[in-house]
Structures are given as C-alpha cells and as structure tokens.
Amino acid sequence: MGSQDLTVSRRTFLKGSAAGAIGAAAGCLGRSAESGDVTSQGERSVVHGNCWICRAECGQEITVEDGRAIDLTGVDGHPKASAGPDREGTLCSKGMAQLEKTYNPNRITQPHIREDGELRAASWEEALSYAADELETFAEEHGSEKLLRYQGYPLAKHPWHDLFFKNLYGAPLKVGRKTTCHGPFSTSWEWMSGYGREWPDWQNSEYIIAWGRNVMECFRGQWEPKGVMDAKENNDATVVAIDPRYTKTAQKADKWIPIEPRTDGALALAMGHVIIEEELYDEAFVEEWTHGFEAYREAVADKTPEWAAEITGVDAGEIREIAIGFATAAPSAVAFPWTGLAYQANGFKNCQNVHALNGLVGNIDRPGGTRQWSKGFSLADPHEKQGIDVPANYEDKPTPDYDDYPFQKHGIRDVSHNLVPKAVERGDIKGFVNNWSSPPKSGNTDEWLQALDDMDLVITVDAFWDAVSKRADVVFPGASQLEQPFLKGGGDSSYSTSGWVTASRPAIDLIGDCKPDYQVYKLLAEEMGWGEYFPWESGAEYWDEQLDAIDMSFDELADQSYAIVSEVGYEQWKDGGFDTENGLFNFDLDVKDEYAELAAEMGASTAPEWQPPDDKHYGETTDDDYPLLFTDVFVEQLSRGHCQALERSVAAYQERYDVEDWDYDGNVLHINPVDAGERGIRTGDMVRVESADDSIELMAHVYEGARPGWVATVNGFGETSSHPDGAGANSMKLNKERHVEPVTGMTARNHPVEVSRVGGEN
Amino acid sequence: MSEEWTFYFDPNSCIGCHACSVACDVRNDRENADDNWRTVKHEGTGEFPDYEETTVSISCMHCGNAPCEKVCPTGAITKRDADGIVTVDQDKCISCHYCGWACPYGAPTFDGEKMSKCHLCLGEGAGDGAGKPPRERPKAGGTTPACVDNCVTDALHAGPVSEMMELASDAAVRKFTQNDRQLIVEPTEEVDPETLGD
C-alpha cells in the first residue's frame, strides 16, 4: 500500500480567502463567516441526537436551521447527559465542538479506491465493486481468516460490521480495546468479580478513590462528573485522586496523592494491610462470597504503610488515613483504577490489588460502591424475528498460535495490538478492515505503519485522512453521528437502579457522498451476494425490530430521546453468585487455569502481590541515560477519536494549559520545573523526548502539576493522526512490540526517556 | 420592571472543562481563538506537591460602570438601561479597539471587521445584541445563555442581579457591590475575585 497526503491544512484553510474557501466547502465553518448576518433565522427545529464523540451516547438537543445543525445542548433528565430525573442535560466541550466534525472541510465525503498505487475518488458503485472483488480475491489467495477485524468505534457499536466481516466473510481474528485501552483492568476484574461493566455508583458514594482515572476530565458521559459533584454535595463524600499528574480530579479532591508511577499495587497492598489489621473489612461478605482471602491476608501481612511509603513516596500516615476512611465509608466507597494503571506493564497485578480492596470492604454492587451495571432487559434479535439463520463462517478457521509472550503461551490471546505487525510479518495476517479507529496511534507505531504498507488489502470506514485511510485500498466515507440514526441501551448512568434505551433519527441530511454505517455494510453485502442478511432499508428499521422486545417503536423512542426500561437492584450476586469460575469474588486467581499456569511460569503469585518494574516483564526502569519516565494521558477537551481534527477542541486543549498563544497546534509535554530547569527548558520550547528506541519532538509545558521525574503528553497527535497539519508528536513512536503487559498483551505505555531542548525563543 | 442582569460564577463547582467557552463559540459563531467571548483560565499556585489550581470562566462582566462604554468614540457600546447588558452596535463601530484596551479583562474582541463581545445571548453572533428587546428570563421565553445552558456542574448562572444574589454567599455579594457590580463570584482559598483578570 502507498501513502499520500490528501489533507487540507487547517491553517491554510483559515488563512486563505475565508469567504471563498468557506463557500467552496459549503459553509463548513458556520454562518457568520459567510455573511456576518446571523440574525436572519430560517426554518428552525430542535431534534434529538446522541453524542458519539467519546461513545457515551449523551442525549442531545440539536438545533437545525434550514437543514443545517447550528447548536447543541444536552437532554434534560437523560441517563447519560444529566445527573438524573429532572436534572439539566448538558454536553461537554468536545461534544459541543462536534458540529465542526460534521462540517469539517477535511472530511472524507467520497469513496476512494486505490488504482495504480494511488488513491482516487470513486463512485459508490465503483468502490463497492472494487471492494467486493478485492475481498473475493483475498479469500481465494489467503483465506478469509487472514483478514484482521480491528475493532474501532462504529456508531452505537452497531452489529453490522461483525455481521458482514465475521459471520458472513468469515474473519475470526479481532483486535480490540482490551489490548489498547483497559485489558489489565477489565481482565483482572472479569476473573475476580465477573465482567458486568464494573463502574462506580458515583452519585451514592461517600468515599471515592479515583486511582489513575481522571474522572472529572475524562468522563464517559456527563453523569460521571455530575455524580461526583452530587456525592460531594449531598453525601459529603471524600474524594482522593491518586495520580502523578495534577488533574481536575485532583483539583476537586480532598487529597491529591502524586504517587511514584507504577507503584499503585504496593499502595493497595498496604491499604489492605491496614484494613485487615484494623478489622474494618466486611467479614460477612468475605466469609460467604469470596475465595482466597487467606492468601490475600498472607500477601499483605508484612505490607505495612511504612513498607509502602518507601516504594510509593506516599506518607505512611496518609496511607493509613485513606485506608481507614475508605473502609469506614464502605460499602458506599469505591476505589476505581483505569488507564493510569492499565497502561503499566505491571498493571495487571496493580489492578488486581486495587480490585481486592473493593472485595475486602464488600462494596461490590452495593449503593455507592462499584456497581456491576447491567441493562436488566434484552432487545429482540431482528434476524431471528425474520427467520433468517445467520451463518458463523468464522468458525473452524485457523488462527495464529504463538508462544512468544506469556499471554500467548497460556491461551489468553495470540494477537494483541502490538503483535499485529509480527503476525503480518509471519504471513498470518494479510489484510485488515478498520472502522472508526486509528491503530498507529495506539502502540508500536512504526511497525504498524510498515505492516499497513505490507498488507495486501486495507479497507476502512472513516471520516478523516489519517495513517490508515491514507494507506487504504478502499475508503468508505462514513456519515457523522448527526447524519445517522442511533440506538443504544445500557445500565451505567445517573439512574443507579435502572436500565435504559436512547435513540435518535438523523438530524441532518448526509454530507457529500457519505453513507450511514448500515448502508455501507448492506450495499457491500448485496455486492457480495449476501443481501438476504440485510433486508432492512435502514439502521432505524433494524433497531425498530429490536425495540419490539420492550414494546416501543424507534420513532417513539427517538421522539422522547430516552426511556427508562427496567429496574436493576443492587447485590445482583446474591441471585446466583458472581459470574466467575467459581461463583465467588476471587482475591486469589488460582481458580483461573490459564492465569494459574502463566503465574507459575513467571514465578508470580496468583494472589495479590507487589510486582515492581523489573526491566524484564513488568516495565523498563529509568537509568542515567534515560532518567525520566514518560507516559501519555487523557484530557477533557479531546476524545480518543477525531478531536485532533477539530480546531475548537484543539484550541480548548491549548487554553487548558495556557499555551494558546504559542502558534503551535500540537500536544505539549508536561514537565516539572525542577526537571525542566536542569535541562534549560522553559514553556514554549520545542523539546526532544528520546527513549532507547526512538524520539519525538513537541512543545514543553513546564508544570508544577507534574511529578518530578515523570513527563507526559496527550496521545493522538503527530503525523499519523487526523490533525490536518499532523502537528505535535505521536507518543507511540516510542512504543515497540515488546512494550506489552504480559498477562493480557495490552500495550504498555511507560517509557524511560531523556528530554532535551531543541529550539525556542524564550 | 427592568432589572440589571449579571453572571454568577462559583469556581468551587467549576471543573474547568471548557464546555462554557466552546458552547459560546458554537452559539455565537466564534471561530478564531483571538475572538472568543468566553475563556477559561486555570490559575495555579504553589509548588509540587503543594500545587493547586482554581479554574475561572470569564467573559464580559457587563460592569455597572462599564469602561468600554466610556471610551467608545462613536457610542457604539451601550450599557442598556433595561437589562444592564453591554452591547456593541457594529453599524456604529469604527474598529478603533479603544473598548478592548479599556476593558481590564479584554472582553471586547476584534472579529476581523468590527469589535464584538458577549451580549448574554440576546441574539446569536456578533452584532446581534444591540437594539434587541430587554432580556427575558428563560421561563418567559428568553434563551438561556449558551455558556450557562451547557455548564456541566451548575457553576455558571445568569439572571437579574437580585436572583443571582440569592444564589450567592454574603461574601460574594459583598465583593460584587464593592467591585463595580461586575461578575458575582464566590471566593475560594486561591482566588480573590478582585484580582480576576490580573
């Protein structure tokens, strides 16, 4: 595959003839720039939508004037967009900025196909025919099992991508979020407590430990920060933020604990030590509903706060205070780890140790604790209703069987995100299909770029030119959320004991030659002779059939935006036990055979344990050459998707750190003044971040909110991103195949580095 | 009966998410970072690990004694009697920038042709506030200002001064009356309302 630059520079766009450019782009940047006259109001209506910028489906009210969406706000009372019944609905800054996504001049609005090595615009007929031919040839030459399904963020997580590529085409291999986002967190939780979407019951909590999760800035829906603020106001909740970075969560917290990075597991063990020593744990719960308590008790017996203080840099008295505060508030207390821990090579054990605290104090699925959210209802299967038997053509297809890494040797998974390039090199993956995702910014970047070039077939559905779409053979222009119908149901929300559904119709007509996701797969299926599996005219029709199960129509639901459907009580484990190997909450994971074998081989305990970074399995350590630890982080203003392409989102991010006047559109490197001073670095300087493998360059932001010895930036920028100028740095250029967490294969994002000044006028 | 309107802001509730400033940009078609009517500032104090931040959402405060109005040579800027909202009549504006310089917060901004500023969403976009009928409360048919409408944590409010005073603490009201009836802002440990914009 080749690569080419098809992106309009945003700066060029803005600095050129605004009127002409905007006219050519069909008014892409708003009304005032066209005429200066915004008082004349055409036909206006307010319709519902569901925000998909961070995939939290917050209910939207969209103001549409003469067919153009002009304003947005949240739906009052919406389970995701509000704090609950009769509460005001809002949207966050990135949600508010999404009109710029829909009307962006850099959007891909036509299908493209590769011809003679170059991408060119094509009609849908051409593109579908080309894609179908390529897929058939691929299956004949390589077998459909060699087409990787890379799980992105298709609108409303619709089922049609998998229906086409997994069930019909027969591609069994998928790489998803478990190895780019949350594997150590979610897999440890799955084995300990059963999956069921663990997430805090924020609004009812009295003690919140945000552990490597910046909930006030990186929320999945407006209900989260609103719930934390409600907990503070209504329950006088204590909030503790454990994070080497001063975040907005730290700002709102009663305590900011800027822990030595990657030592979270030691802190958690010491807290367990205190809670057991003080007999503050939930004896009845532990006795009746858990497994492995004795192993846990033994593991923490000598893990005193003084022991942990040496490792974590957290004062022993403070450790004792937090442990006692947390256990005393339980069960209305929650310790919730997220990417801060999941990004660590020793993150599995660190997460297990934190999860163990929740089991110890018996807060699982109790009010204000860590809720095991579930819908409490099911939607209908439209294929079953239509009497359509969907084949499972992915079954019995050969898949790679690797044993390079522990997670591969013991049957946990064979291909993780960072291992895709190796599978391509070995000939086990020859192509991939991508939907709304940008893998080269999620780890092992350079090898991923090479792998994309080496693949025989790359198909993507997306909206912007980035490292994948520029290298693709077929690019289908996906419609933005405002142009598509939407349906989603769930549990986690401001309605603590309710399941809900939310839906919306397309708010505006399709932009350019874009198509809704359903149509992309339906048309491709028809081209391949599988039209019978897509008999519905639209996604809305499909969802209408799904809603039969709860006696609602799609139109009825879209009119009201959301509906509360079911009651889901607390303590669901009392009815049938935990959804684990043994029906119990497991402190000790000896019950999970794959993990028990893996732990035995690695010399690890199956019980909670402290696993320090060791330059072997659990993370590389800093030294004289690379004395600073680098990682990447999230901020509120940018989502994990396309926000780097949105001027308003990037501007809000820059304003967040007061660097908006630096004539620089990229991400900034947060560095403590002590570390910066030693290197002659000041805010606004361009700096090189160099690891043993590679280097990146970006602008420095000297910040008291960064722990000395630790530097960080937000990911998603740089030359492979959807940012029109490719500004800033792709942090994952520093990441290589070996940077994986050994239990789940998750990309580990901590890298020892040195930072040096390469330019600046300060 | 007409009554002066103002903003009420509680930094203790603000989470610094910038939804207010982006909502203002969207409703009022602010496209250029130099021409934003509302900004969010993050004021840091102390050294690691005793570092703390306070967030301040700031726009035109529709001052009781508006310095921008006083320096405008053409009378384009008006502190309206009916609702106290300070507007720019862009037909009269000669783009001399005096208002922007006179304002301690730099609230009036240049939109490429004329000066523009927050009009408390009397209308939408630059030039849409001047000459509009008096501000109505949302329940009487008026719009909720975009920034207020999208404040995630109810940190920002707007309304007649008497209503905003009811929401505010005595300390905030006292500051407001001492401070030329600008924004009503709750004090925090880190931020003194009198130093906003310094």
Automatic annotation (TrEMBL), chain A:
Matches recorded under InterPro entries: Asp_de-COase-like_dom_sf (IPR009010), MoPterin_dinucl-bd_dom (IPR006657), Mopterin_OxRdtase (IPR006656), Mopterin_OxRdtase_4Fe-4S_dom (IPR006963), Prok_Mopterin_Oxidored (IPR050612), TAT_signal (IPR006311), TAT_signal_bac_arc (IPR019546)
Single GO MF descriptor: iron-sulfur cluster binding
Family: Belongs to the prokaryotic molybdopterin-containing oxidoreductase family.
SUPFAM superfamilies: ADC-like, Formate dehydrogenase/DMSO reductase, domains 1-3
Source organism of the structure: Halapricum hydrolyticum
Top-level taxon: Archaea
Name used for this protein in its record: Molybdopterin-dependent oxidoreductase
Domain 4Fe-4S Mo/W bis-MGD-type: residue ranges: 44-106
UniProt entry keywords in alphabetical sequence: Iron, Iron-sulfur, Metal-binding, Oxidoreductase, Signal
Automatic annotation (TrEMBL), chain B:
Keyword Hydrolase: no
GO MF terms, alphabetically ordered: 4 iron, 4 sulfur cluster binding; metal ion binding; oxidoreductase activity
Domain 4Fe-4S ferredoxin-type, chain residue ranges per copy: 5-35, 52-82, 84-113
Pfam families: Fer4_11
CDD domains from the UniProt entry: DMSOR_beta_like
Keywords: 4Fe-4S, Iron, Iron-sulfur, Metal-binding
Zinc as UniProt keyword: no
Protein name in the entry: 4Fe-4S dicluster domain-containing protein
Annotated source species: Halapricum hydrolyticum
